[in-house]
Each structure stands twice: as structure tokens, then as C-alpha cells.
Amino acid sequence: MLPDYHIHTTLCKHATGDVAEYRSEAEKLGIPEICFSDHVPNPDGYDLAHRMALDQFPSYGKMIEALHDGETPEVLLGVEVDYYDGCERFLREWLSARKFDFVLGSVHFIEDWGFDHPAQRHIWDSADITATWRAYFNILLKFVESGLFDAVGHLDLPKKFGHRPTDKDLKEMAQPVLDRIAGAGMGIELNTSGLRKPVGEIYPSPLIVAMAREREIPICFGSDAHCPGDVGDRFRLALDLAREAGYTEYFRIRQRRKELVPLPEG
Ligand SMILES: [Zn+2]
Ligand SMILES: [Zn+2]
């Protein structure tokens, strides 16, 4: 089994279950290592409805630390960080002052549109799909340039409700972003939560995973679990996706240093 590097906690206000339950779920599945990557707090009140407040961060650290008790699987401390215009001001110092194992970056907003939020899904009805994807990838270019992150979470998230550009447009938009990800030594996450969403497909799509492979961008795996039952969700399919793209290795990370290890056999 593969490590699950994307697990949330109740501090984000939209997850259920105790951190120990997530770990015991992982243990049952034979997952060797998990990383909690809960939504990071921001001091400017950014999207406070879906994340811990800044003063709750110490209790997040304590929750994870309490799992450093010699039991398996091993538990890493991570965060899922939203990239948006102006976030660097706070994040650059705040992230480097803390001992994270893993900093996963994500984009959930285009300006003030939470494009993956079910309550804002209707905005897609009047949106220009290709232009929206273009805007998303333009944010990702700045995201990569910021150098703040170890990996990109759910890289093609705008497909969540089934809105997609043509493959030709997607390729053209994704190419400069993937080039820069590779140049920055950043990884990407194969995130199985897309299988639980209307699109019914892992993030990112086989096309993007193949493009990432061409550039030797390292991969990791995440379930984006918001309840214990989602830990390791259909990782078999994510492993198949990685192999079909030609991957033979994935990365593990400790204190923000990646190490490549062979994908499991079989
Ligand atoms: Zn969440
Ligand atoms: Zn996310």
C-alpha cells in the first residue's frame, strides 16, 4: 500500500472523525505512512468557513504530535495551503518558521469564486469554460513561481463538476505550468477524491499525468479524506494511473525533503 499524504481533520469545519480513527483506518489497510494536510489558516480571514483559525494551529500540531506514540503507521505533519494573490506576504515566513514535513499547495478560488464549491457550482452555468481554465492555470503559474510548496494538490480541480476544455487546449495550458513545476523540483499529487465527485476521475487526468511523467515530475498519493472511511480511497486505481503513465517511483517526504522510492509491485 501507498502512503496517504492528504488527510483533513475536524478543525477545517467540514470533516468528521478523530485523528486516531484516521490512523487506525490506515493501519487496517496496511498504509505505511500518513500525512495530515489540513487547510492552513490565514491571518486575513481568508475563507475562514473552511479552515482552522490561526489561533487553533497549535492545537492542530498537538493533535498530530499525540500520534507520535510508536504506533503504526507513522504520522507526518503537513498542511494544504491555498495559493491566492497576496498570500506570500504571510506564508513565506509562517511556513518556514514551522516544522512541517509536507506543504501541499492548492488553488480553490479564481478571484472570489470558489469554483469547486458545491454552493457556487451554478456559476459554471454562465462561465466560459476554456477561459476559466486559462485563469486557473495562470494562477498556477504564479503559485509555482512563489516556490512555497512541495507539491501541487489536485492539479486539474476545475474538472470537478465535469467542465473541461478540449484536450488540445488543456495540453497547451498545462504545458508551461508543468515545465515550471519540473524546473522548481516540485511534485504533484494523484488525488483520488475526484472519484467521489461528479467528474468521477482521479485528479489529475491521465493526459496530465503522462505530461508530468515526460518531465519526470515526482508524484505522491492523497485521498483528500474528510472522514476516516476515505483514507486510502481506491489507491489501487491511482497506482494503475501512475504505472500506465510510465512511473516506476513515487516520493516520500520528511521535513520537506523528498525521497524517491519504487512503486509497490503487483
Ligand atoms: Zn476540505
Ligand atoms: Zn483541496
From TrEMBL:
InterPro entries tied to this protein: Histidinol_P_phosphatase_HisJ, PHP_dom, Pol/histidinol_Pase-like
Residue intervals of the PHP domain: 4-193
Keyword tags: Amino-acid biosynthesis, Histidine biosynthesis, Hydrolase
Highest taxon of source: Bacteria
GO terms, biological process: L-histidine biosynthetic process
Pfam family, one: PHP_C
EC code: 3.1.3.15
Catalytic activity: L-histidinol phosphate + H2O = L-histidinol + phosphate
GO MF entries: histidinol-phosphatase activity
Pathway where this protein functions: Amino-acid biosynthesis; L-histidine biosynthesis; L-histidine from 5-phospho-alpha-D-ribose 1-diphosphate: step 8/9
A GO CC term attached to the entry: cytoplasm
UniProt keyword Chloroplast, yes or no: no
Family per record: Belongs to the PHP hydrolase family. HisK subfamily.
Protein name listed in UniProt: Histidinol-phosphatase
Upper classification of the organism: Bacteria, Deltaproteobacteria, Candidatus Desulfacyla
